Structure formats: C-alpha cells, structure tokens
Amino acid sequence: MKIISILAAKSAVMEAIADPRYLFTAANQFLKASGQKPLFEVQLVGESEEINLLNGVFSVRADKLFHEVTKTDLIIIPALFGDMKTAVAQNRNAIPWIINQYNIGAEVASLCVGAFLLASTGLLRNKKCSTHWAYYNEFRETFPDVEIMDGSIITEENRIYSSGGANSYWNLLLYLLEKYTDRDTAILAAKYFAIDIDRESQSSFAIFNGQKNHNDEEIKHSQEFIENNYCDKFTVDQLAQKVSINRRTFERRFKLATNNTVVEYIQRVKIEAAKRNFESTRKNISEVMFDVGYSDTKAFRNVFKKITGLTPIEYRNKYFKEPVI
Fold first, then answer.
1. Whole-prediction pTM value?
2. What is the CA radius of gyration of the chain?
3. What's the chain's average pLDDT?
4. ∠ at Cα 187 (15, 131), nearest 5°?
5. Count of CA atoms in the C-beta half-sphere (13 A) of 85
6. Class assignment of domain 2-205?
7. Got the DSSP string for 244-279?
C-alpha cells in the first residue's frame, strides 16, 4: 500500500488538492476492476482539521494533522494562490514536517507554483525544478540556488518532483501513477480524465514578458529598444554602443538582469510577436517571418520550435480560429 499525503495547504488552489485525491482514488477503482488490489491510501494532511481556501469561499477537512502522520510514501504540495511570499508564510509550519518526512524516505511532489513552498524547505537547493512559466522571474529572484527548467512539464531529482503551470500538474500525477502502477493504468487514467499523456513542454502556452524587475537602467533601455524595433536589423555591438557600454560588460549585465543572453532576448521578442500574428491574422509563414525580422525560413522555424515546442504551422493550427461572419 502506498500512502499518498496531499498537503491541505492554506491559500491552496482547491483543484490542486481535489484532483490528486480524485486521481489516486479512481486508480484504486481501476485496479480493483482489473482484478488487482487497491494500491493507494489517500489522505489530506494539514495543520488544522479545517482549512479555509479563497478567503473562506471553500474549505477542506484534513484527514490527519501533521503530528499524526508518522510515515508517508508521497507528499503532494498543491498549487498556491495569491502572493507567493504570503502564501508560503501562511504554511511555514508545514515546512519542518515536509523536511522530516523526506529525510525518512518520503518522495515529495509540488504542483505548479507549489514549487515556492517546496523550495522554501531547502530541499531544492542546487537542484532542478519546474513551475508555472509566468512565475519564472519571481522564482529565480527568490531562490537563486534552484535551477528553473524553462518550459519543462515535469522535473525529477532525488525523490523530488515538480510540475509546470496550471493543468500541467495532471501530467506529473499521471507520471507518478505510472511509476507506482504500470503504463496501462496510467493510460486508462489519462483517457478517463481526458488528459494528453506524455506532454513534455508548457512552452506553447508561455507568454514572454521581458524581465524588467531590476535596477540596471541601461539594460532596461536596451530591452525597450529591442521590443520597439524587433523587426529591424541590429547587432549586439550596436545595442552596447547605444548605452555606451563595451560589449563584454553589456552582455554580462544583460544576462544578470534578464536571465537571458542578448541574442536569446531578441529571439524571444521576435517569436512572441510572431505568435501574436499567427493567433490573430491570416498571414502565411513567410509574411509573419518577414514581419518579425527574419529572412531565413529554416532559422525562423528552428528558433520558433525551440522556444514554443511547436512548428509555426502547428502553432497556427492550435491557436488560430477563423472569425465567424
């Protein structure tokens, strides 16, 4: 029997508590229907018997309190809601329990921005982690000793798991289910819950907003220039000259401030503009390519797929809808 302990965290997203419980409970039914014994004991664990969510709109009841759980096989940390520093502070009493359970053999999985609470335990120090793409910059600033896996849906390292943003956590739950049972059970669950199994990237959902939460004014001016002139041709040397910084220093400061190299930043700005074109216009690939400053079709396709995980055609087919007349 595998004991699954879902943290009934304060400021948690309700679905991120209910969905794991639903999945592993349903898995027991799948196993039973196939002539096997149920494998999972699923429990909600919290600091108090009742935990209010979304300012009291919802509440959940814990099956056990922290001190009542002597041993568990897996702890699931749900996605949190609201300001992350506040949400983590509200759950600070869960941190020693998570650390203790990990130290005696439990695995730990965070869903979406539950990674902020997981990282606050120190268990992710010098390790890799996935979280919601919209929180990459805040996460990097808060936990500089944790490596964010850009675009990744699932990260696993030393009995610690993390997932990408929002509904991506279903892919981690299916991954864990397959690990604890078998591929057939995971596929059955994927079909039952209508989840695209084995999705590996959240890149196609990401919106690039250049990191400007820094105090390097020259680099901010450079970012603004790139964003306002992405369709034009300019070099890194020219960008450095515009702010009167030598190229080597400029590149170092740019990377430090934005978490991107200059070339990466330019590429991301161009591809974000291309994505908006594909989403809202009938322009063909060549037209969009030229609009965002590319002249080499192969280079455009390669960079687009590297950043979004999809080819330009795949992206257009996924997001463009003909207007109803």
1. 0.71
2. 23
3. 90
4. 40
5. 4
6. alpha beta
7. T--HHHHHHHHHHHHSS-HHHHHHHHHHHHHHHHHH
Q: State the CATH class of domain 217-319.
A: mainly alpha
How many angstroms separate the CA atoms of 227 and 258, rounded?
Answer: 14
- Domain extents in the chain: 2-205, 217-319
At 313, the amino acid letter reads I
Q: Which residues pair with 59 in a beta bridge?
A: 52
- Of the candidates 151, 146, 155, 72, the one whose C-alpha atom is nearest the C-alpha of residue 111 is 155
**Closest C-alpha among 223, 268, 219, 208 to residue 244:** 219
Sign of the Cα pseudo-torsion (95, 96, 99, 105, in order): negative
Give me the residues paired with residue 52 across strands.
Answer: 59
Burial of 50 (0-12, 13-18, 19+ CB in 10 A): exposed
How many other C-beta atoms can be found within 10 angstroms of the C-beta atom of residue 56? Answer: 7
Write out pLDDT tens, residues 49-103.
988 887 777 889 999 999 999 999 999 999 999 999 999 999 999 999 999 999 9
Give the residue carrying structure tokens 């592993």.
Answer: 24
Query: pLDDT of 216-265, one tens digit each?
Result: 999 999 999 999 999 999 999 999 999 999 999 999 999 988 888 999 99
Q: Are 171 and 195 in contact (CB under 8 A)?
A: yes
